[in-house]
Amino acid sequence: MTDPAAPPPALALALARIAPNLALVERAMRDQLASDHALVGTIGEHVLSSGGKRLRPALLMLAAELCGYDGPRRVQIAAAVELLHTATLLHDDVVDLAELRRGQQAARAVWGNRRAVLVGDFFYARASSMIVEDGDLDILWVFSDTIRRMAEGELLQLERSFDPDVTEAHYYAVIDHKSASLMAAATEAGAILGGVTRAERRHVRDFGREFGTAFQLRDDALDYAAGEAELGKLPYTDVREGKVTLPLLLALKRCLPAERDAVAAVLKTAARRSVELETEGVFAPERVLEPAELAPVLEVVRRYRGVEDTDARAAQHAQRAVDAIAPFPDGPVKQALAAAAWFALERDS
Q: What is the pLDDT of residue 282?
């Protein structure tokens, strides 16, 4: 029987081919945990051992191959990009007061917010050092600009937390600054390694951005459609954290005024309790909103096809990702990247 979660053949073959390099990426990341302070290694190992799809290193490897480069520099740049991603996860969990990450306790829940932030800073520094050691100024600029954009994206998201009037433009701006920005940086770095033209580099960057947007839209749909076992965290976490993502945003645009008022009341309750729990120094998502209190939100998302239409939007972005690399010659790597874009929509975790 075929595993519905298994990558399509073109992607599976490409991943098998780059598996040795991805193993080197893992080793390179752990090499960066060396510190005079043992807690850095302890927290770093906790985070790196929690799993993760290693999408960004894989995309960087494939983008570089698409552009004609399969040399060893890919390993260090890919490891730096994944360390940057790991730093953002440590900081995001502090900002969101998250208890779980990939099915296990978040670092902040074990060691506290201050230590999690500081180890995240350490990861930022290590990742930056790896880019500087490589010595390519174009990659360094992409890397530093991405850090700036992700910080701005987090602030954009926070300024409209628990707001039922958030717009699609604001929602997409957050994605473009956060998830899409880092995916685009990974693929653009691969293109730079390949020494392609500015136009070709832009095409590969656009692939990463559209892929990242599709991936995040699917993530936001899964928060309403999947269970805790698949998500590795409590479902409906986004609304508990005040994030009005596309499934709810679309429903709010279509629902009746009374339904909208009911959802706004839920968000107001969640905002108040979040402040109370943060003041107490204890945050548990299930204490922000009880299952019964979530009912008005879940009902409008169901009734107005929030999940289904979010997935449809994600498919549009996946197609744009595929279209972005259309000018490149056909071959196994191009097929693998296209398969990755579509596979991002089929996953259930």
A: 63
Task: List, for residues 293-333, the tens digit of each pLDDT value.
Answer: 999 999 999 999 999 999 999 999 999 999 999 999 999 99
Whether 156 has a pLDDT exceeding 90, the answer reads: yes
Task: Evaluate whether 254 touches 304 at the Cβ level (below 8 Å).
Answer: yes
In this predicted structure, what is the pLDDT of residue 347? Answer: 81
210: exposed, middle or buried (Cβ count in 10 Å: 0-12, 13-18, 19+): buried
Q: Give one DSSP letter per residue of 82-130, joined into a string.
A: HHHHHHHHHHHHHHHT-SEETTEE-HHHHH-HHHHHHHHHHHHHHHHHH
Domain ranges within the chain, ordered by starting residue: 12-335
What is the spatial distance between Cα 257 and Cα 18, in angstroms, rounded to a whole number? 53
Mean pLDDT to the nearest integer, 170-186: 97
Letter for the amino acid at 148? Answer: R
**What does pTM read for this prediction?**
0.92
User: Residue for token digits 């071959």?
Assistant: 331
Nearest to 103 by CA among 232, 221, 194, 209: 232
Residue 327: count other Cβ atoms within 10 Å of its Cβ. 9
Which of 51, 334, 321, 335 shows the shortest CA–CA distance to 183?
A: 321
Measure the CA–CA gap between 91 and 114, rounded to whole angstroms.
Answer: 10
The CATH superfamily label for domain 12-335 reads Farnesyl Diphosphate Synthase (1.10.600.10)
